[in-house]
Design the sequence.
């Protein structure tokens, strides 16, 4: 990875979802702008706040998709990330979530 790039693997499946009340929402339903979570696979040398294994929140519309050995990944800039959930921060008197 080069510069400020972050390679992530999305963990959501496209398809129908359920609301908190149990109502099934079909995949074809139009919903408002929704951010997505993904797992960081690799980072460039200039990335400061994210490490491999972290989960990040990003806008699915600001992405570049790439396929490596048959697996689909998303390529993002560090500045396009909205939040970072890091396991390594547990026990540091914080939630482990950067906003």
Sequence:
């Amino acid at each position: 990875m080069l510069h400020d790039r972050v390679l992530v693997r999305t963990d959501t499946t496209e398809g129908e979802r359920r609301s908190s009340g149990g109502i099934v929402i079909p995949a074809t339903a139009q919903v408002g702008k929704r951010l997505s979570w993904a797992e960081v696979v690799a980072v460039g040398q200039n990335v400061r706040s994210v490490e491999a294994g972290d989960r990040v929140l990003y806008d699915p519309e600001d992405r570049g998709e790439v396929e490596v050995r048959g697996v689909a990944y998303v390529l993002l800039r560090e500045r396009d990330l909205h939040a970072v959930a890091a396991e390594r921060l547990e026990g540091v008197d914080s939630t482990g979530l950067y906003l």
User: Anything to note?
Assistant: The chain has a mean pLDDT of 79. Strands lie at 5-10, 17-18, 24-25, 36-43, 55-58, 64-68, 71-77, 81-85, 97-98.
